[in-house]
Amino acid sequence: MTSARAARLIEHGKPLSVEPVELTTPSDDEVLVELRFAGLNPVDRYAAEGRVASDGPLPRTLGEEATGLLDGEPVLVTGEGLGARRDGVFASAAVVPRAAIYPLPQGVALDAAAGLGVVGLTTWRVVELAEVRADDRVLVLGASGGVGQSVVSYAASKGARVWGQTGSRHKAEAITDAGAKEAVVTDAAGLLDAVRELAPTVVIDPLGGEFTSSALLALEPRGRHVLFGTSAGAEAKVQLQQLYRRQIQLRTYAGLTATREERREGLTHAIDEFAAGRLRVTVGRRVPLRSVNEAFAALRDREVVGKVIIEVG
Q1: Is residue 252 located within the same domain as residue 183?
Q2: What is the DSSP string of the chain?
Q3: Is the pTM of this model over 0.85?
């Protein structure tokens, strides 16, 4: 048996315990991976609180995405129930399904690449779903978040004019650094006036709530609105006449319903775009494994611009 240090969920709602674990011998459809960096996501916090995967085994190692080495070659490890139905990747090493392995090009930054399983896949999916073109004017809501930063970079790489919204003035510079022409600091009530000059043809929306209501009104006729989250509210008031008379297209994406084949297709494209520098993952903070609970607090309090990465190996 091989041992590793891992961040373990012992009881829902309690801090994780970083402790040694014994790893089982891989079966025919599993491999042992030496891990280097893991991406921290809101779903990991929800799992720790018991809000998702509450029927998963306890104790277990959390974490659904990481980078590391398999037989000396760089790989991304993600999906296949990691951190939910089975031990995850907040560990120095892990036994994982072969289906969770995605080869990475030599020379890519393994810390940033650790965010590709969620941020990279989501970014590629929503920007492609929006059919962003060079002549588009794109408004990215929540643009200082992990996905928001990457969406800004990827949409800008297509030649589109991109604006990013944030509610915090101190996060504005990071949005323009990611590739936005302008960072708009506003709440939902002020959004319509704040983006009137842009007249967006595309809105990328992880916020929901009243942000969605305002953004739909801000869109140009025949504009495309892609909704993939509701962190600002699960309900919105929509003016239906405005929606259909201007032929607004409302599209949605949910990673939880993606099939294995859809995930593999999307991740393959996301890795290619990342390696080419067109899709960026902003590492906002790197935290050692022993400080994993501090990383959870930073995620909860929205302290970080971009992605929180845990140094696991």
Answers
A1: yes
A2: -EEEEEEEE-STTS--EEEEEEEPPP-TTEEEEEEEEEEE-HHHHHHHHTSSSTTS-SSEE--SEEEEEETTEEEEEE-TTBTTTB--SSBSEEEEEGGGEEE--TT--HHHHTTIIIIIHHHHHHHHHTT--TT-EEEETTTTBHHHHHHHHHHHHTT-EEEEEES-GGGHHHHHHTT-SEEEE--TTTHHHHTTTT--SEEEES-BHHHHHHHHHHSPTT-EEEE---TTBS-----HHHHHHTTPEEEE--GGG--HHHHHHHHHHHHHHHHTTSS---EEEEEEGGGHHHHHHHHHTT--SBEEEEE--
A3: yes
